Amino acid sequence: MLFDLHIKFLLFYFNLMKRFIQTHFNLSHQILTRLLKYCNQTFYDPESGNNGNNQGKEPLTEEAYIAINDTVEDIYSTIAIIFGNFNMKLTEIIRKQSVEWISIHQFAKLNAFFEEVAQFFKKDLNAHDKLTTWIVTDIEKLKISLLNNNENFDEKITIEPLLNLRVQCGKDYVSYFHKHNHDTMKHTLEQDSWMVSDIPYTYRIYFDLIFNGEGAHRKESISEKPELDEEDIFRSARPDVNDLEVVRRLALGETPKLREFPNLPNEDNEKTDKSVFEIKKSELIVNKQRFKLNGSLLVLIKLTCDYYNVAYKFDQLRELTLTKMFDLLKVSG
């Protein structure tokens, strides 16, 4: 609950700031465009040697050249300060809440927030392109100076710190996630009686993921939406058999009631045409081969499915997550 409120506050702050940033940035872009248009209509380059088409224009003096450059630099500096403060404040807010104890579902909300921020700056605001395309002039000296100005501020007018924070949050989450699973598996192995265990019916969800691949590539649809608001990210929907949140709840030892999940297969009809497995009390039947499972193996199946879900839910964490999963398998083996 605390983490959900944390995400809500992030969304509130971002929506507040993005209106200010968009308004100021668009206004600055209009000023730069009109300033250069005025320069093109008023001045010509005396060093070009081609003055035939410059009737009614004045030569660009050194004073005018310096004044234009100073004005552009001041506008760029202001934009850079706004971007810098935004990066710093948002980073500070995000770091106030650790990702150590959050669930896969909660981490998906944080990841969707980062996606929304990146979407706004790269596509909606389109800062990088707008700060380049306005520089259109035949005054070569001025053009070179403005392009140099643009290059000098390119690393400051960016959300790269937030994108780097996203990578770090992902690594931290996988690290905490793996440590918890490693400790859980180690404790289970130490306490296991190595007797054959009955297989809970709810494990059908895990075996669906393993043998049938159901839900394996399901993505958070909110990260694909152009707008992300509180209704989108916190909309409460009844989960189904493919919902990764169901898997998370089962991994925590919670037993879902069938009425909560209407799409869960009926226990009286547990074998379907497309399934390659069947569960019968203490036996798992795969392609007519029978297997007995103990408690440690059942826990390992739960944890493996969690790694599987993280790897396919978050592309940028796939390699790291699968590496950690293989480490867990080594401990279990």
How is this structure best summarized?
It contains 11 helices and 5 strands. It is mainly alpha-helical.
Give a verbal description of the structure:
By secondary structure, the chain is mostly helical. It has two domains: 2-158, no CATH class; 180-332, no CATH class. Helices cover 62% and strands 5% of the residues. It is built from eleven helices and five strands. It has helices at 2-42, 62-95, 104-124, 127-133, 140-153, 160-191, 204-212, 230-234, 244-251, 295-313, 318-332; strands spanning 43-44, 58-59, 277-280, 283-286, 289-292. A hairpin with a 2-residue loop joins β3 (277-280) and β4 (283-286). α9 (244-251) runs antiparallel to α10. The model is unreliable at 215-273 (pLDDT under 50).
Q: Helix- and strand-based class?
A: mainly alpha
Radius of gyration: 29 Å
The profile of the biggest β sheet is: 3 strands, antiparallel
Poorly predicted runs of 5 or more residues: 215-273
The termini sit apart by 37 Å
Q: How many beta-strand elements?
A: 5
User: What is the N-to-C succession of helices and strands?
Assistant: HEEHHHHHHHHEEEHH
Enumerate how many helices there are, as a single number: 11
> What fraction, in percent, of the residue positions are helical?
55-70%
Number of domains: 2
